Amino acid sequence: MEHRQHPRFPVRFRSSFSSANIVSGEGNLVDLSIRGCRILSATEVKAGTTLQLRVDMSGGQPPIQVTQAIVRWCRDRSFGLEFASLTPDEWARLQQVVKELELEPYQRAGSSDQAV
Question: What is the pTM of this model?
Answer without folding.
Answer: 0.82
